[in-house]
Amino acid sequence: MRDKIDRIDAKILTELQKDASQSQRDLADKVGLSQNACWRRIKQLQESGILQGQAARIDREAIGRGLVVFAMIRTRNHSADWLKRFRAHVTSIPDITDFYRIGGDYDYMLKIVTTDMKSYDEVYQRLIEKLELENVTSYFAMEAILENRPLEI
Q1: Cα–Cα distance measured from residue 4 to residue 147, given in angstroms and rounded to the nearest whole number
Q2: C or N terminus of the chain, fewer CB within 10 Å?
Q3: What pTM was computed for the model?
Q4: pLDDT, tens only, 2-48
Q5: Nearest residue to 141 via CA among 119, 121, 112
């Protein structure tokens, strides 16, 4: 997909990652295009799937979601049916914000963002209630040094 992005598209994507709420006029000025040309570029980036919506970054602490936990999961079951049920189960738990299938000593990694240890334990209990997991190891974040870093284009 890299060859589909030219220098102007890269500028647009970089600026939108900094602030997707800026006006189209401001964005067009920053990337050196007319508003219409900028709008057409954004539409093309959306249609190609490179640009996927807009989201607001929220200060977790400000809304009482200060606890971040990374849960590493190992399982013995790798069947397609089990994986389908596991994915549905994990994605039904709102405090799980990120979910990866990984290589290495563990099979899956979850990022859980919640209010406190009691709330984390409720997420954990819900996680293990329906499917057999071999091992769940949790790591508690002490400080977010770098989070939601924009991608270099």
Answers
A1: 27
A2: N
A3: 0.85
A4: 457 899 999 999 999 999 999 999 999 999 999 999 999 999 999 99
A5: 112
